[in-house]
Specification:
- With 283 residues, this protein is of the alpha+beta class.
- The protein has two domains: 125 residues, Diaminopimelate Epimerase, Chain A, domain 1, CATH 3.10.310.10; 148 residues, Diaminopimelate Epimerase, Chain A, domain 1, CATH 3.10.310.
- The chain is built from six helices and 17 strands.
- It has an eight-stranded mixed β-barrel.
- Helix 2 crosses helix 6 and helix 3 runs antiparallel to helix 5.
- The two termini are 23 Å apart.
Length: 283
C-alpha cells in the first residue's frame, strides 16, 4: 500500500456535532475498488472520498458509500476541498470524477476553511405520476401535502434526485418511511437521494434527504442534491437568476447544516460550505 492518510471531517458546518460527516482518503494512487469499498464500510459515514495523487491541483476522486460506489457526492467534495486546503493551501483544485471535472475553490474566510464546488451542467425532467404516487406511498405522505408551485421533478447535477416540495413545515418535520420499499423504487429509477423540501422564503429552503440506496436512512447535508435543486429552479424558471439560496438541512437529525447555493444564469451550480475535523470519537 502506498503512503496515505485518512481524514474525518464534517461538512457544511463549523461545529463537529453538526453537518454531514465524510471520510477523505488521500494517497499516491487510488486503492482497488474492493479496498475502497472496505474502507468506506469501516469508516461508516454516508460517503468517503478517495483522492490521488497527494500533490498538485489536479486530482482524481472516487466516492463510496458503505454499500456502493456513487458517481458524485457534494458533502464529501467540500470535505475533500478543506482537507486539501489544510494540506496543500488555498486554490482551485480540479477533481476528475466519474461524471466529469468538478472544480473546487478552497479558501480561508474569517479564519475558517471554506470550499465551493461547481457542479457539472445540471438538467431535470418532470417526475412521472407513477413515480410520485409510489414514492408518496413509501413516505406515507398524501398528494395534497405537496407544494405544486415547485412541481415534482427528477433533478441532476452529477447524480439524480427526486425533488418533492411540501407546503407545510410540519410535513417535512415528520419523516418515517418504508426503507426497503423506497430503496427499491429509487434503484429502479436511478435515484441517489430524495430532495424533500419546504420553502420558508424565496431564499431559504429546508431539506431532508433519504438515502436508502447507500444504506443510510438520511443525509444531514447533501451537496449534490443542493446543486441539482439549484439547477432545476433555474432551468424551470422557478427563480430569477443570478440568485443565491440557502438550504438548511439536518436540523431534525440534530446535525444542523448550512448549504449556500449560488445559481448563475448558465453553467454549473456553485455549492459552498465549511468543514471541520472530527476526532476518532465521532466515528
Amino acid at each position: 500500500m502506498t503512503d496515505s492518510s485518512l481524514h474525518l471531517l464534517s461538512a457544511f458546518t463549523t461545529d463537529p456535532n453538526g453537518g454531514n460527516p465524510a471520510g477523505v482518503w488521500i494517497g499516491d494512487t487510488l486503492p482497488t475498488p474492493e479496498t475502497m469499498q472496505r474502507i468506506a464500510a469501516e469508516v461508516g459515514f454516508s460517503e468517503t472520498a478517495f483522492v490521488a495523487p497527494q500533490i498538485g491541483f489536479e486530482r482524481t476522486v472516487r466516492y463510496y458509500s458503505p454499500e456502493v460506489e456513487v458517481p458524485f457526492c457534494g458533502h464529501a467534495t467540500v470535505g475533500t476541498g478543506v482537507a486539501l486546503g489544510e494540506l496543500s493551501g488555498e486554490g482551485t483544485y480540479k477533481l476528475a470524477t466519474t461524471i466529469g471535472q468538478v472544480p473546487v475553490n478552497v479558501s480561508i474566510k474569517d479564519g475558517q476553511w471554506q470550499a465551493s464546488l461547481t457542479s457539472v451542467e445540471p438538467t431535470h425532467t418532470l417526475a412521472s405520476d407513477t413515480l410520485v404516487t409510489d414514492v408518496l406511498s413509501a413516505l406515507s405522505w398524501q398528494q395534497d401535502e405537496l407544494d405544486l408551485s415547485i412541481p415534482p421533478a427528477r433533478a441532476y447535477a452529477g447524480v439524480w434526485h427526486l425533488v418533492l416540495a411540501v407546503s407545510q413545515a410540519k410535513r417535512l418535520a415528520n419523516l418515517d418511511y418504508d426503507f426497503g420499499q423506497l430503496k427499491v423504487l429509487m434503484q429502479q429509477d436511478g435515484l441517489l437521494t430524495l430532495q424533500l423540501i419546504w420553502r420558508e422564503t424565496s431564499g431559504i429552503f429546508h431539506s431532508r434527504n433519504p438515502f436508502p440506496v447507500g444504506g443510510v436512512v438520511e443525509d444531514p447535508a447533501t451537496g449534490a442534491a443542493a446543486a441539482a435543486l439549484g439547477g432545476y429552479l433555474r432551468d424551470a424558471q422557478l427563480i430569477s437568476v443570478p440568485n443565491q439560496i440557502v438550504i438548511r438541512q439536518g436540523e431534525a437529525m440534530g446535525r444542523p447544516s448550512r448549504l449556500v447555493v449560488d445559481i448563475p444564469a448558465s453553467g454549473g451550480i456553485v455549492v459552498s460550505g465549511t468543514a471541520v475535523p472530527l476526532s476518532l470519537t465521532h466515528c
